[in-house]
Amino acid sequence: MSDLAEFERYMSHLCELLGHEDRRAGFMQYSRGLMLPIERKSVEPLAAHIDPWHVSSKHQSLHHLVAKSDWSDEAILGGVREWVSPALKLEKGCYWIVDDTGFPKQGQHSVAVARQYCGQLGKKDNCQVAVSLSLASACGSVPIAFKLYLPEEWATDRARREKAGVPEEITFATKPQIALEQIRAAKAAGVPVGVVLGDCGYGNSIDFRESVGELGLKYCVGVQPTTTVWTTDLSPLPPKPRRTDRGRPATRLRRAAGHEPISVKDLAFGLPRSAWRTIEWREGSNARLVSRFSAMRVRAAHQDWRRGELRAEEWLLIEWPTSESEPVHYWLCNLPVNTAVRTMANTAMTRWRIERDYQELKQEFGLSHYEGRGWRGFHHHATLCIAAYGFLLSQRLKGGGGKKNSARSETSLLPEGYTPRGSRKNAAPRPQLHRHASLSVGSRDRATTRTVSVLRGSHRNIKFVTQ
Asked: Which residues 6+ apart lie within 8 Å of 91 measured at CB?
């Protein structure tokens, strides 16, 4: 079966979930446009490339599909998951990765925009932030849930909510709470169960960790160096003994001067050289990555003076490369007690796959290009981007995971002299709108990863480039 026939079959699979027949053509055209090698993938440029001689009418129909039409993002993402899952080979290892990504924005009117931390910029700035859950394996990963974080200032502002079309049922929730909602929904939907992975933005929340555990799921999540734990040699003091027959007996655990938990950073510095193992792991490419790891059994100490029972033991995993002056990463894991350190290290490092998802989705599929201001449009555009990404990911995995070819168009798809609506003919270039304007993922311990190639050629003679 040709790639084009497979694409038609994929689109038919997803369009069955749209609810109305009249949405199908626009959905397929929008998805196809997102896979073309064009610079900007907001609604108007997509319309210009899909139907360059009738841009205005096509823009209107695509805008209605994304910003107004009432189809279910959850249903479409479920369809994407069903299509991609077989290619991921989840039976060899399955992971659920939670994370969030930022979208820098100007002004105050786009839904949920506020001054907050933006991972793309590495600092606080004006932006939107969305939380996602990705289904992952050793082969690849794809987002299966995606939801905008609504800052408290937006959640309590009725006028702004109504103008941006925020649904009534959406209330303020922290990012870990949104991630838990996505995890519960995935479990209820029968998604193949995976180890929950996340950075310290999620792992620092003991409520998040305990809630994941209560769902019967395993986790391996990052924590900050200041996180305190009890070691197997040091536990909190038992409740005070009862001295008289009067009053209620003490029930809460205690600390005392000289008998306190230790931070994971101090614990790492106190470990002997023999506690560290050099481990190689593979992370999405042919390159081998190497670092030093140590693991030990601990108990989380967060506010245990309010508890009457010890928390369960879990693993503390620490990464300390020989080239660094101190450890660089810490994780708490509730993996089985007999889990090998190498297995834990490979599990922890799988989390970086989510950053490849974001990089691909923003740079190649236009995730950060949406220019509307409403709640529905933001999520519909994101869903369409993920749908396009999911198809080409599945094609690459079925083809053996070849390396990326050039995704640049060799010929223009627009009529000569075409000027986008509202543009001045003498307008200066706008490099900030280039599809590669989003920051590249750069980290000492991450390999250069293959990317998913986008469509190449005109929309009339499509050639899928997936390997």
From this structure: none
Residues of the chain with pLDDT under 50: 284, 402-416, 418, 420-449, 456-462, 465-467
Provide the 3-class DSSP secondary structure of residue 54.
coil
**Distances 219 to 88, 120, 174, 249 between C-alpha atoms, Å:** 20, 25, 19, 36
Among left, alpha and beta (phi > 0; psi -120 to 50; other), residue 152 is alpha
Question: What CA–CA distance (Å, rounded) separates 291 from 277?
Answer: 8
- DSSP string for residues in 55-86: HHHHHHHHHIIIII----HHHHHHHHHHHHHH
Q: State pLDDT tens for residues 370-419.
A: 999 999 999 999 999 999 999 999 999 988 764 443 233 333 344 445 45
Contact 110, 368 (CB under 8 A): no
Biggest CA pair distance of the chain: 94
pLDDT at position 248, please? 62
Burial class (CB in 10 A: 0-12, 13-18, 19+), 20: exposed
CA distance 304 to 263: 15
Dist. CA 130–CA 149, nearest whole Å: 5
The pLDDT, as a whole number, for residue 197 is 98
Supply the pTM of this predicted model. Answer: 0.84
**Per-residue pLDDT, 434:** 38
In sequence order, the 6+-apart residues with CB closer than 8 A to the CB of 329 are 222, 318, 319, 348
Burial of 291 (0-12, 13-18, 19+ CB in 10 A): buried
For 49, 133, 135, 395, the CA distances from 183, given in Å and listed in that order, are 38, 7, 11, 27
Q: Where are the domains of the chain?
A: 1-88+368-415+430-467, 209-234+258-352
CA 447 centroid distance within chain:
18
Q: Quick check: 194 and 136 in contact, CB under 8 A?
A: yes
* Residue 388 · residue 364 · CB < 8 Å: no
